Amino acid sequence: MRPALLTARRKALVAWSVILLLPALLFPSPARADNPIVQTIYTADPAPLVHNGRVYLYTGHDEDGSTYFTMRDWHVYSSADMANWTDHGSPMSLSTFAWADANAWAGHVASRNGRFYWYVPVRDRASGSMAIGVAVGDSPTGPFRDAIGRPLVNNGEIDPNVFIDDNGQAYLYWGNPRLWYVRLNTDMISYSGSPTQIPLTTAGYGTRTGNASRPTLYEEAPWVYKRNGLYYNVFAAECCSEFIAYSTAPSATGPWTYRGTIMPRQGGSFTNHAGVVDFNGGSYFFYHNGALPGGGGFTRSVAVEKFTYNADGTIPTINMTTAGPPQVGTLNPFVRQEAETSAWAQGVETEPASEGGMNVGFIENGDYLKVKGVAFGTGASSFTARVASGSGGGTIEVRLGGPTGTLAGTCSVPGTGGWQSWTTVTCPVNGATGTRDLYLRFAGGSGYLLNFNWWQFAQGGSSGGNLLTNGGMENGTTGWTASGGSTLSSATNLAYAGSRSLLNSGRTAAWNGPNQNVTSSLTNGRSYTTSVWVRSQSGTPSAKATLAVTANGTTNYFQLTPARTVNTGGWTQLTGTTTVSWTGTLTNASFYVETATGTDGLYIDDASFQ
After folding, report:
1. Does residue 320 form part of some domain?
2. Which stretches does DSSP call E strand in 308-450?
3. Residues near 596 by Cβ (< 8 Å), separated by ≥ 6?
4. pTM, full prediction
5. Which end of the chain is more exposed for a tag (fewer CB within 10 A), N or C?
6. Residue 312 lies in a domain
7. Domain count of the chain?
8. Residue 162 parent element (H or E)
């Protein structure tokens, strides 16, 4: 049985028509907003890492409905364009560290010698205090394993950050309420010397008023990096609520000089936590807020802004936005794309897929995914999706420009007998040209409809279009003929869509079926996508769509769709994509629906060949 989803956040996301007014920030409709960058869960404490042309984002995970920092695992996301983010799931949790019993708090990942080291603060079961652990993985998405089986450092403080200097020396920084560093060895899981406390002076970290025990602005979450020979320490300042400030120094160990505010107090969370990276010629500032429905200080969400350093190397003031950064390049729809890659996910969640990776699930009527900046070029001819359904299924609407934008195509998803019993469906699309924001909207009855693993478009000319006349069957038998000794009639008592279908009865051979001449429409060597809905008049025949092509007196047969069993109890979609080619001069081409064996009568509806 599929588990129920018992979160107030989930219900609020489905009903995201409410406008949230946050301090100094007005959040408009999600159709125009891509910040926060994760909408399927609450995320916090971003730690970005650039690796092999992608930005990998490591986050904490605030549990739904939390009234404290209730966090049990960490998550990974990645992007090649800073707009569409892929959910890689949770490759590490508290159970990774057998010696820890609570608090999967803010971590940081560093890469060295082909390995990835994840430094995290967790509660040491033996001492009952916070300690820094380190896990290692062989890829940026894990899985990760405890590297040493014990704390790396244990002094009751949190928020580790690792910086590797140009000379190869790695430093681990951490601390709240104090600030520490230690020099890591090249193995990244041990250190030389003892932890050193960084002096928190007002010259180095600004002046806090009204708190004698904490005279500086430094609170927590150090993020140390180097740019143009200058060392930066970006940190969360003066709780509560926190703002983001920074200091600079001539070396990795100081002395530090306070430089001012980067991000003022805003965003509906009393904490903030920053990460800064350069990627593809731009600089990016990651942070968290409470911007999602149900969000707040214990239910936070990660967001990102693009910024430009001032000429003197100082960092400008950065405010939170709902737009996020501009997209870097475009997304290619003609290669496989994971369903869990999106700029905005409305009303859905993600989960591990039996085929590997993650899938989008918990899909209900009206939910949708936004994929930003999809480069269709001269056009797409079809859309293919990998789907599963433990219920009666639903439909995926391919829309352009918005969740209720131009409808380019509709793919029907049948029940597959299980939420992880996967099948592939294909449907024709029209009008998907140029670079557009793609919305995949889900429709159907009540309850959960389907799971969604991946998708891909097939290329087609900008003219696209259905090559079949009267493919919707609403104009009687116009354009269609019956082969062999069978009879073709317009059926008004039964239809998949609209008010009519075609009935092919009196079949005397398996090859008898409704057919249509498409000779003048074919292009040699082109791939065509077929979709036709079939229902048996009696029995359970195995039906398929075929193209007979005659050139230079020779006829070749192209099976356009795999044969599928159809019955009298409902409609079955026959769909597939096939490359059609011939040698010589084409003289005749006929599209028809037939059966593998038998002479059962067939209804057909909503046929397309494009």
Report:
1. no
2. 337-338, 341-342, 344-346, 349-352, 358-361, 368-375, 380-389, 394-400, 406-413, 418-428, 435-443
3. 510, 541, 542, 543, 544, 563
4. 0.75
5. N
6. no
7. 3
8. strand 161-164
| DSSP code for 495 | -
Q: Is residue 515 part of a domain?
A: yes
Whether residues 538 and 395 fall in one domain? no
Tell me, what amino acid is at 355?
E
Please state, in angstroms and as integers, the Cα–Cα distance from residue 212 to each residue in 101, 207, 208, 209, following that order: 34, 11, 9, 8
The pairing of strands 380-389 and 418-428 is antiparallel
pLDDT at 26: 33
Per 3-state DSSP, what percentage of the chain is helix, strand, and coil (rounded to 5)?
A: 5, 50, 50
What amino acid positions are annotated as catalytic residues?
A: 45, 219
Same domain, 509 and 446: no
* DSSP for 343-363, written as a single string: SEEES-EEEE-TTSSEEEES-
Query: What is the C-alpha separation between 136 and 148, in angstroms, rounded?
Result: 9
Domain that holds residue 590: 481-609
Residues 492 and 452 in one domain: no
The answer to whether residues 431 and 504 belong to one domain is: no
> Which token pair is 271?
């904490």
Q: Which residue has the tokens 């097939």?
A: 458
At 456-512, the pLDDT tens digits run 998 874 344 678 888 888 889 988 999 888 999 999 888 887 778 999 999 999 999
Q: Fill in the amino acid letter for 85.
A: W
The DSSP line for 37-62 is S--SSEEEEEEEEEETTEEEEEEEEE
Distance CA 217, CA 202 (A): 8
For residue 327, what is the DSSP state?
Answer: P
* Torsion over CA: 204, 205, 210, 214 (sign): negative
**Residues 380, 256 share a domain:** no
Mark which of 307, 328, 357 sits at the end of a domain. Answer: 307
Q: What is the 3-class SS of 121-158, one letter each residue?
A: EEEECCCCCEEEEEEEECCCCCCEEECCCCCCECCCCC
Same domain, 94 and 162: yes
Q: Render pLDDT for 106-163 as a digit per residue (tens, 0 to 9).
A: 999 999 999 999 999 999 999 999 999 999 999 999 999 999 999 999 999 999 999 9
